[in-house]
Amino acid sequence: MENNRLNRAVEKLKSTGVRMTPQRYAILEFLQTSMSHPTADEIYKALEGKFPNMSVATVYNNLRVFKEAGLVRELTYGDASSRFDANMHDHYHIICRTCGKIVDFDYPTLRDVEKEAAQKTGFMVENHRMEVYGICKNCQEVPVG
Fold it and tell me: CDD domains annotated for this entry (predicted)?
């Protein structure tokens, strides 16, 4: 299934005139298989052994291309570096306040909330974002002090 998603993403990029380079493919593949919502620096560090001539700027530029093509979302939570998520299906995130880990979870989308907001305010609602915060299981088990 992962391979199908990757192939569809590659085809979508090609259809918009984006040339598929080995670095671009590797970044896309890393994003598609990563469950950790990596930062650009984490992607760079994971791939630098395979592509020693690739720069952090290359990773950022490709993430921008992927974002514009609708293949990844940029997650900006708090003051931390942006994280990137290749799961474009409707889902939400829970974030650990201690270590910053982000985990996907499914929940019925809040379309009713969008409709209600539009009706009560007259806004044309474009989207919404919900994040849940807490302490992950690993951080709960770390002794304090």
Answer: Fur_like (cd07153)
- For the domain with range 2-85, which CATH number is right: 1.10.10.10, 2.40.440.10, 3.50.50.60, 2.40.160.60? 1.10.10.10
Cα separation of 131 and 95, whole Å?
7
Q: What is the pLDDT of residues 44-64, one digit of tens each?
A: 999 999 999 999 999 999 999
1-5, 21-25, 75-79: least confidently modelled range:
1-5
CATH of segment(s) 92-141 = 3.30.1490.190
DSSP string, 46-112: HHTTT-TT--HHHHHHHHHHHHHTTS-EEE--TTSPPEEE---SS-EEEEETTT--EEEE-----HH
Looking up tokens 């919502």 gives 37
- Cα gap 58→27, rounded to integer Å: 10
Task: Look at residue 133 and give its three-state secondary structure.
Answer: strand
